[in-house]
Amino acid sequence: MPSAVAGAEAPPRRRLGLILALLAFAQCIYAVDYSIVFVALPEIRTGVGFSAQTLQWVVSAYAVAFGGFLLLGGRAADLFGRRRMFTLGLFLYAVSSLAGALAGDPTTLIVARAVQGIGGAFLAPATLSLVTTTFAEGPERNRALAIWGGAGGSGMILGSLLGGVLTGAFGWASIFFANVPLAGGAMLLAFAIIPKDAPRGIGGRKFDLPGALTATVGSTLLVFTLVQGPESGWTSPTILVTAAIAVVILAVFFTIEGRGPDPLLPLRLFRNRNLSTGTVVTFVFMGTFGALPYFFTLYFQSVHGYSATKSGIAFLLPCVGVLIGNLSGGKLATRFGVRATLFGALLLGLIGTIAFAFSVSPNGTYLQLVPGVLILSLGQGTIFTAMYAAATTGVAGEDQGIASGVASTGQQVGAAVGLAVLVAIANSGHEGLTGEALRVATSDGVRTAMWATVVGIVLIMLVVLNFRRPPAAPAAEEPELQDGVASAV
User: GO cellular component annotations, sorted alphabetically (predicted)?
Assistant: First the structure.
């Protein structure tokens, strides 16, 4: 399979390492942004004036907007140019981060977080599709995805580390100010490093406006329903109405897609078993492993009284484990196949999560957590790389943007739903508790959430079996990536 989409300017070999480094950096930016706010939430609540009921929307506004706009962002990358959508996403990140840092009231901060989510919806599929179209399917792409995945998987936990350190040293606004030069700098570098997009309108493909509108509105309402359901109650009028409207609009969307000549989401993509299975895997993965930073933070701060800075430092161990797993994932997928690699990594994550659940205690120590946290983070990092390698296998170059959007939708919706469900499980029965009773109940709740995560991991292991087995082929030495790329591994 060619390493670049037909009609696009092929990057010179000497620039491939720089391109991959920039894409990995962008992946790290939006992964950090997802998790950096968790440690800062207590400071944000008192500094901006959120209530206990509205504070969750600092996280949920990002998730709802991200999940709602992902299909639009993915197809826009295919039709209007991946570099254009990449830079647009970074621009939205920089502007909304500045607005968030300057916010003086809850509404402004929630709107800023929603715009960050929209930026992520354009950035995520553009970044992933740039990786998958720049590097040929197979060992070369696996190694590139290992670097990209290393930046993303580690960024989620690194965000918790930075959130603690920055909040402790400079206050909650610093976590948003930090994004401005990072996103702005990456945007400027993109014009110098990433090759120009093909002229717009090449090939006569048209933008599916009805599909874009119905997909965005329907997806946004669906994610809102799933995020708000545990808080409002699944039978509350708001949830029932938004769920019904979401189902109707999405039904209209799929009808449009089945009849249109240039659909936003070609339904034929779901005949690719790897893509459909990979989307389910990313959904459940983010609903389990993706929620871990929240529960790490809850356990460190609410049970053991860690400061924001100390909590951030405590995240160094899982950050290192995820990074090692990410960088190993590409090599393991090349040697053993993505299906076998995923299954083995999930087994490792399962063992680590069980060990972590047993070590959670109101009177436990950090050292008791080390074996479980290290093992599960190694598995988590390996899974993150391998699941995207599996999901994008066999997808045509001109569809890589929307395929990336589909897989990323599974990731983002899974994160929102999983966190909401696990938080509801962990907080069950805590009403009216204070002081020592609340601390003990919080520890018990974290442990219960970990056992629920174990069930989710077992479910992913069963889903992974649906990936196609790789075709038998003679063993071959893994090729080196062109020029500077191999040295970036």
Answer: plasma membrane
Task: Decide: 37 and 30 in contact? Cβ < 8 Å.
Answer: no
Question: What angle do the packed helices 139-170 and 366-391 form, to 10 degrees?
Answer: 140
Least trusted range by pLDDT, from 159-168, 235-244, 248-257: 159-168
Distances (CA, A) of 444 to 310, 360, 363, 438: 22, 8, 12, 10
For residue 260 the two structure tokens come to 């249109």
pLDDT in tens, 95-132: 999 999 999 899 999 999 999 989 988 998 888 888 88
> In degrees to the nearest 10, what's the CA dihedral of 416, 349, 314, 311?
20
Domain 13-207+262-471 classification at class level: mainly alpha
3-state secondary structure the chain: CCCCCCCCCCCCHHHHHHHHHHHHHHHHHHHHHHHHHHHHHHHHHHHHHCCCCCCCHHHHHHHHHHHHHHHHHHHHHHHHCHHHHHHHHHHHHHHHHHHHHHCCCHHHHHHHHHHHHHHHHHHHHHHHHHHHHHCCCCHHHHHHHHHHHHHHHHHHHHHHHHHHHHHHHHCCCHHHHCHHHHHHHHHHHHHHHCCCCCCCCHHHCCCCHHHHHHHHHHHHHHHHHHHHHHHHCCCCHHHHHHHHHHHHHHHHHHHHHHHCCCCCCCHHHHHCHHHHHHHHHHHHHHHHHHHHHHHHHHHHHHHCCCCHHHHHHHCHHHHHHHHHHHHHHHHHHHHHCHHHHHHHHHHHHHHHHHHHHHHCCCCCCHHHHHHHHHHHHHHHHHHHHHHHHHHCCCCCHHHHHHHHHHHHHHHHHHHHHHHHHHHHHHHCCCCCCCHHHHHHHHHHHHHHHHHHHHHHHHHHHHHHCCCCCCCCCCCCCCCCCCCHHHHHC
Structure tokens at 118: 């929209």
Burial class of residue 469 (count of CB atoms within 10 Å of its CB; 0-12, 13-18, 19+):
exposed
pTM of the model: 0.74
Cβ pair 432, 83 in contact under 8 A:
no
Q: Are 70 and 126 in contact (CB under 8 A)?
A: no
pLDDT tens profile 347-387:
999 999 999 999 999 988 899 999 999 999 999 888 877 88
